[in-house]
């Protein structure tokens, strides 16, 4: 989760512009694609953050590479280049996703389990834990962690709900050694 004040400001501005234009979904999709591109080609982030490449050339790269993206996304990317803040782009995307999810009443959750969850289990977990964090629903990322022995551990932002056998045993051990 982003802790950068700079990233939060850019993400907030991007969110407000996208929301005002009723383009939250489209901008979110463009940013997801941007994240994918940066993950697949980390050299691009290095290039767009490099001090030896001119700002105009970097802006030209952005215009060419992300030609199909929403103009507001391209403008923010070019602004990050101008202000020599392109290294914050990943944090901006994360913060935008969080703002967008909050405004739409859902949150991202990581569910650690010993095996892949079925759709029915995902739905039940989403319904149960969404109420605990005052959201309508949760977008669940399932991570397999065989060290849990059994049960699940759910992480929603900074909140962790641990009902795994491993967690219960650790709490029991702690209580017994007091």
From TrEMBL:
What is the membrane topology listed in the Swiss-Prot or TrEMBL record? Peripheral membrane protein
Where on the tree of life does the source sit, at the highest rank? Answer: Bacteria
Q: MF terms per GO, please?
A: proton-transporting ATP synthase activity, rotational mechanism
Q: Does the keyword Membrane apply?
A: yes
Report the subcellular localization.
Cell membrane; Membrane
Matching PROSITE patterns, A to Z?
Answer: ATPASE_DELTA (PS00389)
Which keywords accompany this UniProt record? ATP synthesis, Cell membrane, CF(1), Hydrogen ion transport, Ion transport, Membrane, Transport
Please give the GO cellular component terms listed in this UniProt entry.
plasma membrane; proton-transporting ATP synthase complex
InterPro entries xrefs: ATP_synth_OSCP/delta_N_sf, ATPase_OSCP/d_CS, ATPase_OSCP/dsu
- The answer on whether this UniProt entry bears the keyword Hydrolase reads no
Q: What does this protein do?
A: F(1)F(0) ATP synthase produces ATP from ADP in the presence of a proton or sodium gradient. F-type ATPases consist of two structural domains, F(1) containing the extramembraneous catalytic core and F(0) containing the membrane proton channel, linked together by a central stalk and a peripheral stalk. During catalysis, ATP synthesis in the catalytic domain of F(1) is coupled via a rotary mechanism of the central stalk subunits to proton translocation. This protein is part of the stalk that links CF(0) to CF(1). It either transmits conformational changes from CF(0) to CF(1) or is implicated in proton conduction.
Q: Which family does it belong to?
A: Belongs to the ATPase delta chain family.
Name of the featured protein = ATP synthase subunit delta
Query: Origin organism of this chain?
Result: Caryophanon latum
Query: Gene for this protein?
Result: atpH
